[in-house]
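Q: I'm building a small set of examples for a reading group on sequence design. Run inverse folding on the following structure and report the sequence directly after it, with nothing in between.
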């Protein structure tokens, strides 16, 4: 069994939870033990996030993970102004920030500085390795996490709805862009603080969330029919 599988990841599941779930179904189909089935992904989503997760099934496809991980992505973002989070999302410790209440015009005026190629510092609570150790592991242990800024490209970011303290954005970004950092940086520019409360990935390259299946739609009977083939 070889191909791409488009999954609509539910909230609270890690990307690895989804991989393991699919691996067990593949094992059932092929009559193998799960550990002997090749299933991978092309870019993680945070546990609180939902949306498009592109999985790779079979050895021919898992070896192309690096190629597919470089694809651009689109996200629907909900951000909360007037507070910050230690993790940049709802799972961290939330602290209110005393500051102005930005107008819609204020937010729209700030967005252009976050388009094009920019330098971004990935969050401490990320999977980036520092001296061989995941940054989030060091952060959870209370250790200082120093991550160097890196270039990312934000093709577009648009404000689609705003009722203070909640704003909704759509961003089309390069691989390697951290939405939590984008939101935090925007909150800093607005002098009000901000963190991401909801995040949904809708595209990965040419692949769209409309073509994805939920985990509950997957079964040993239909899995092979849901696989996409690449040239």
């Amino acid at each position: 069994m070889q191909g791409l599988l488009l999954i609509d990841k539910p909230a609270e599941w890690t990307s690895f939870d989804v991989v393991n779930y699919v691996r067990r179904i593949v094992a059932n189909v092929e009559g193998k033990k799960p550990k002997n089935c090749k299933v991978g992904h092309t870019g993680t989503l945070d546990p609180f996030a939902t949306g498009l997760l592109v999985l790779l099934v079979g050895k021919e496809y898992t070896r192309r993970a690096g190629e597919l991980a470089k694809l651009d992505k689109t996200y629907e973002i909900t951000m909360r102004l007037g507070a910050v989070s230690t993790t940049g999302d709802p799972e961290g410790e939330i602290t209110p920030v005393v500051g102005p209440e930005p107008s819609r015009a204020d937010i729209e005026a700030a967005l252009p500085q976050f388009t094009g190629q920019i330098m971004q510092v990935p969050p401490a609570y990320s999977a980036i390795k520092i001296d061989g150790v995941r940054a989030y592991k060091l952060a959870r242990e209370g250790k200082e996490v120093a991550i160097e800024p890196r270039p990312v490209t934000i093709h577009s970011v648009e404000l689609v709805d705003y009722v203070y303290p909640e704003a909704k954005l759509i961003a089309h970004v390069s691989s390697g862009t951290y939405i939590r950092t984008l939101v935090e940086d925007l909150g800093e520019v607005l002098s009000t603080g901000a963190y991401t409360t909801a995040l949904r990935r809708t595209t990965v390259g040419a692949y769209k969330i409309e073509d994805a299946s939920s985990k509950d739609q997957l079964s040993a009977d239909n899995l092979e029919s849901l696989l996409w083939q690449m040239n």
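The mean pLDDT is 91.
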